Amino acid sequence: MDRTLPDEVRSLVEEIERDPQYDADSEPVEASDADAAVEAAVRQILLDMGEDPERQGLRSTPHRIRRMYRELTAGYWVDPDRLVNNAIFDVDYSEMVVVKDIPFYSLCEHHLLPFFGSASVAYIPEGRVIGLSKIPRIVEMFSRRLQVQERMTKQIADFLMERLEPRGVGVVIEASHLCAVMRGVRKPGTIMTTSHVLGLFRTADRTRAEFFSHLERTPPSL
After folding, report:
1. Is 56 a catalytic residue?
2. Catalytic pick from 51, 111, 165, 214?
3. How far apart are CA 58 and CA 114, in angstroms?
4. C-alpha–C-alpha distance, residues 97 and 160, integer Å
5. Strand 97-108 versus strand 146-147 pairing type
6. Among residues 51, 165, 174, 179, which one is catalytic?
7. Sign of the C-alpha dihedral, residues 209, 211, 212, 213?
8. Residue 111 catalytic?
9. What is the rounded distance in angstroms from the CA atom of residue 199 to the CA atom of residue 151?
10. Catalytic site residue 110?
11. Over the stretch 152-202, which tens digit does the pLDDT of each residue have?
């Protein structure tokens, strides 16, 4: 098969073909002091569990864990200016814009266990709109951090309010928390809902009601 591909397509093909966690060549030749300290801590956790970090299945686990947490917390390193990247446009539109059912995965900062679900974001433009793809990226930026759901909800709303200066913003997040499913109360199926509203969404009952009515509607099938 012809392997002459544009660079962006080639990188996607290589990502699909290779799984770095099982690729011996992906191991760094010499880890930094910080990386080595993290991996040593993971080995100690394995020892405390009564495991043998040198057995075949666990030998590369500290390296995988370090890389995994760097990936899951990549939101700390996102540059908000590069994320927005001039994707705010002057448009004569003043009705509500709603982007809902945005899937996300995050880590609870109390136990480092995942919580995951969906976010719905709405705003009322004041002569400026933001590119559609940017709203899920904003959700991703804040979810890929150690989080509590309440703070994440507020951060998304505040970010849009600051960058877009709309007439109002509303954010609703629904999520399942593994810290409540796997440990503690152990109640599978429990869903936590949080909301944060600013501007007209806070001061105008009809605007807030319209927002929540949009969330109740069944999306069209694709």
Report:
1. no
2. 111
3. 22
4. 12
5. parallel
6. 179
7. positive
8. yes
9. 18
10. yes
11. 999 999 999 999 999 999 999 999 999 999 988 888 889 999 999 999 999
